[in-house]
Structure formats: structure tokens, C-alpha cells
């Protein structure tokens, strides 16, 4: 069996690039030669070596934002051909090759050329947007502007609504403005940020608020600026322990609280199809948001940058 290079997470921030057997597709699967993968903040605890993970991880895990071209087609797969350029939903994309089910890929249109395209977070953005039920003419608050938050601002503007962005980083606020936010509010002083956001809303709060950072502080801000009868959408990935909410506030305002993390593979695939179509049609432009690119051997540097978030950093990709 031929070999490939793959990142192996060993815990405590250690990542080794090793020679491992190349995975082969089983019946109903395809093998993909990866062109790259996005680096997701949800993987930070894995990189850091949190004790609830077992190390070493499988080669290429937990990379799940891959794109590339089909290199091999398993038995029973009729819709794909070797050479098709695809975004895939898989779990071992920090490597030169990965496998995916034949119904877990979306064809990348030739019009997108060879540009990097981590599809999975685009699918997340589309599904969050759908669950948010945003309507033309609404003012929508986005609390936390990372890659997903910036994509959502683009979608909100395209829907004829107005996005008000809140973030602690000046660079993220600049990104929000470039993506179409009408207002960009710094959250260094939480109480001042809440007051400014509510003033912009006319004092009523926002009918739609999307929390997109996964922190206690952003959840508190999002709750505080939600309108009575509004929809509070949890898009941030909360993974560092329990959260507290002001339930009296939620009760009094009669909020609909939506957890926008989808786990149904078909829903994820539908979101990926919609996202690729939106990129091809110009509704989404993820490319300026991909600010840093690393070779596979420097994957640990990508995680360090994501943890530190230096000025100018928004989203990293890694290339095998």
C-alpha cells in the first residue's frame, strides 16, 4: 500500500508529520487527494492536549474542512470521477489523502479555479443563516466576528437585512465593515458595548441576535441585546465548560433560543451545496477571509496563531 504524509496529534501542542499508509475507499466511498484543509477553532482543545482526548489521534484527525480532487472511486459509486474537484465532509483532512462517503462531497465549479475552499465552515454558515430566519429590513446583531461571523454578515446583507457587528478585536471590526456591517462595536467594555448596541437598535434590542464566538462574555452580550419575542441563535462552539444564563431575562423577553449546530449529515451536505452555489454566484466571498496559509509541517504554528489571534489573523488553511 502506498504511503502518505499525515499530521498526528500527540497532545500538549505536539503535532508530528508522519508517513502512514494511504487510506483506500471502501464500497460507497471515494479517495480524495487533498489540496488543503481549513483549521478550525473547535480543534484547539485537541491540539492543546485536553485530558478528555486519547492520544495519539488517528492520522489526519481531526481535520474536517478539506477540499481536493478525487483520486480513487470505490465500488458502487457512480456519480464521481477521478479528477473531480470537490469539497468534502470528512474527519482526517490534515493529510495528503482522505476518504469520504460518496454522498458527502460537493463538486467545485470550474469558475472557482484552484482557489482554497474549506467547505465545511461554509456549510455551517449557511445552516446557521437558515436557522436564524432573517428577513429583509431587520437589524441583526452578530456578536463575535471570526470566519463564520464574517460570512454571516455577508449573507445578512444579501438578504436585505442590516448587520450590526460586535467584537473585541479592532481587526475583526474592520473585517465586519468590509463584509457589509452597518455598525461595528468594540466589546472591550461590555456594558458600554451593550448600551451602544441597544441605542442603535432604537432601544428595543434586536429581533435576531447571533452569538458566534463561543464564550461566556459573548453569550452575555447577545442575551442583553435581544429584543422581546426575539430569536437568540447560538452559533459559537462552547467547549470549555458550563455556561450561565440569566434565565429571568430570557423568560421575561420570551426569547426563542436556537442551537444552530447541525449534526444530521444530510443537513450538513445540503448546507455545503447551498454554500458552494452561493460562492459561485457571488453571494459569499470567503477568499479575503482566509488570511493565513501554512504547509502541513507547520500545522502547530497555525494552531498557535489561532489561539493568539495576532492582528490580521482571521482564518488559517493548511496545505499538504
From TrEMBL:
Q: Which CDD domains match?
A: Zn_ADH9
Xref: InterPro entries = ADH-like_C, ADH-like_N, ADH_Zn_CS, ER, GroES-like_sf, NAD(P)-bd_dom_sf, Zn_alcohol_dh
Checking SMART domains in the record gives: PKS_ER
Say if the entry is tagged with keyword Manganese: no
Q: Which domain of life is it from?
A: Bacteria
- List, alphabetically, the Gene3D superfamilies matched: Medium-chain alcohol dehydrogenases, catalytic domain, NAD(P)-binding Rossmann-like Domain
Question: What sequence ranges are listed for the domain Enoyl reductase (ER)?
Answer: 11-318
Q: Name one Pfam family in it.
A: ADH_N
What are the protein's GO molecular function terms?
oxidoreductase activity, acting on the CH-OH group of donors, NAD or NADP as acceptor; zinc ion binding
- Which cofactors are required for activity? Zn(2+)
Which keywords appear in this protein's UniProt record, sorted alphabetically? Answer: Metal-binding, Oxidoreductase, Zinc
- Family that this chain belongs to: Belongs to the zinc-containing alcohol dehydrogenase family.
PANTHER family linked to this entry: L-THREONINE 3-DEHYDROGENASE
- Record protein name field: 2-desacetyl-2-hydroxyethyl bacteriochlorophyllide A dehydrogenase
Q: What organism does the record attribute this protein to? A: Vulcaniibacterium tengchongense
Amino acid at each position: 500500500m502506498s504511503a502518505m504524509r499525515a499530521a498526528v496529534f500527540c497532545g500538549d501542542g505536539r503535532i508530528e508529520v508522519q508517513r502512514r499508509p494511504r487510506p483506500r475507499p471502501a464500497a460507497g466511498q471515494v479517495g480524495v487527494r487533498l489540496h488543503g484543509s481549513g483549521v478550525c477553532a473547535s480543534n484547539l482543545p485537541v491540539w492543546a492536549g485536553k485530558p478528555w482526548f486519547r492520544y495519539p489521534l488517528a492520522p489526519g484527525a481531526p481535520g474536517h474542512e478539506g477540499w481536493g480532487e478525487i483520486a480513487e472511486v470505490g465500488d458502487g459509486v457512480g456519480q464521481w470521477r477521478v479528477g473531480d474537484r470537490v469539497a468534502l465532509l470528512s474527519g482526517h483532512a490534515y493529510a495528503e489523502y482522505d476518504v469520504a462517503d460518496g454522498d458527502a462531497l460537493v463538486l467545485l465549479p470550474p469558475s472557482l479555479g484552484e482557489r482554497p475552499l474549506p467547505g465545511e465552515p461554509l456549510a455551517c454558515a449557511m445552516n446557521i443563516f437558515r436557522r436564524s430566519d432573517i428577513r429583509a429590513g431587520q437589524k441583526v446583531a452578530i456578536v463575535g466576528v471570526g470566519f463564520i461571523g464574517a460570512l454571516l454578515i455577508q449573507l445578512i446583507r444579501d438578504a436585505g437585512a442590516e448587520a450590526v457587528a460586535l467584537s473585541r478585536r479592532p481587526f475583526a471590526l474592520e473585517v465586519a465593515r468590509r463584509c457589509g456591517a452597518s455598525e461595528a462595536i468594540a466589546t472591550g467594555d461590555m456594558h458600554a458595548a451593550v448600551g451602544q448596541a441597544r441605542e442603535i437598535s432604537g432601544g428595543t434590542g434586536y429581533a435576531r441576535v447571533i452569538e458566534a464566538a463561543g464564550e461566556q462574555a459573548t453569550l452575555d452580550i447577545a442575551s442583553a441585546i435581544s429584543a422581546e419575542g426575539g430569536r437568540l441563535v447560538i452559533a459559537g462552539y462552547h467547549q470549555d465548560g458550563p455556561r450561565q444564563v440569566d434565565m429571568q431575562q430570557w423568560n421575561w423577553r420570551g426569547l426563542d433560543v436556537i442551537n444552530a449546530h447541525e449534526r444530521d449529515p444530510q443537513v450538513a451536505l445540503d448546507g455545503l451545496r447551498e454554500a458552494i452555489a452561493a460562492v459561485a454566484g457571488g453571494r459569499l466571498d470567503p477568499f479575503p477571509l482566509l488570511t493565513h496559509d501554512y504547509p502541513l509541517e507547520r500545522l502547530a504554528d497555525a494552531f498557535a496563531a489561532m489561539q493568539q489571534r495576532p492582528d490580521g489573523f482571521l482564518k488559517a488553511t493548511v496545505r499538504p
